[in-house]
Amino acid sequence: MAHDDVPFVDWADFLPRFKWRQGEHVALVGPTGQGKTTLALQLLPLRKWTTIVATKPRDRTLAGLAREGYVRVGAWPPPSDQANRVILWPPWRDARDNGTQALAIRDAINGIFQAGSWCVFCDDVQHLTGKLRLGGELETLWLQARSLNISVVAATQRPRHVPLEMWNQSTHVFMWGTADEDDLRRIGGLGGASSKTIRSIVAELPRYHVLYVNNRDRKLVVTKAERR
């Protein structure tokens, strides 16, 4: 790494020391296949009540979570008060289902607001805000959910295509390597660091490595989320 003042911490040491309070938001940004979902699925067990919002027609990783106690539902609410690990997965066969899928997710967000204290993982913010037109609902989550003890974990490939609230309302931000100038400009200046510092670190990250930015404590760390 070109920045000797930014330490590298092994994932086995980083995860046990990761301090994530209920009500704090987490943002993950990086190209497909770099490990966003892998990292998120290792963070989510730190929260007691978790809902994963799934939108793809198929996803083997999420489908396999039934073995870890997740209950798959197509609409809110979950079947019982005991279902504290939920995958909200409205059916999607083709683009004609965008409206019904968006309605199911909007109803779930409203239900989570009423319940409070949930953690919501949105696996593809760009799709939710673009194709499903749920940008307003997500912005409200980022801005208002903390007062209801709700945490939002949000992932996207391209930060320039999602609301700015995803970054400036998140306490914890994980960024994988990219050389795209527009994306680097969007994420510059997080964690109290200079835009130049953030941009240069992210531009030089090796594959699968991630820059962790704590916007509360103004700390920067590089790690590599390993598969379980």
Defining key terms:
228 residues, single chain, 9 strands, 9 helices, alpha/beta, 32% helix, nine-stranded mixed sheet
Radius of gyration: 17 Å
Could you say which overall geometry the principal axes of the C-alpha atoms support?
A: globular
Tell me the strand order in the biggest sheet: 3-4-2-5-6-1-7-8-9
Instruction: Count every beta strand, where a strand is a DSSP E run of 2 or more residues.
Output: 9
Q: Residue-averaged pLDDT, rounded?
A: 87
Structure description:
The protein contains 9 helices and 9 strands. The model has no long low-confidence stretch (mean pLDDT 87). It starts with 10 loop residues before the first helix and ends with a strand. The longest helix is centred in the middle third of the chain and has 18 residues. The chain is 32% helix and 18% strand. A 9-stranded mixed beta sheet has the order 3-4-2-5-6-1-7-8-9. The relative contact order is 0.20. With 228 residues, it is an alpha/beta fold.
Topology:
Elements: H1 11-17, E1 26-29, H2 36-43, E2 50-53, H3 60-63, E3 71-73, E4 85-88, H4 98-115, E5 119-122, H5 125-129, H6 135-144, E6 151-156, H7 165-168, E7 172-176, H8 181-187, H9 195-204, E8 209-214, E9 219-224
Kindly summarize this structure in a few lines.
This protein is of the alpha/beta class and 228 residues long. The chain has helices at residues 11-17, 36-43, 60-63, 98-115, 125-129, 135-144, 165-168, 181-187, 195-204, and strands at 26-29, 50-53, 71-73, 85-88, 119-122, 151-156, 172-176, 209-214, 219-224.
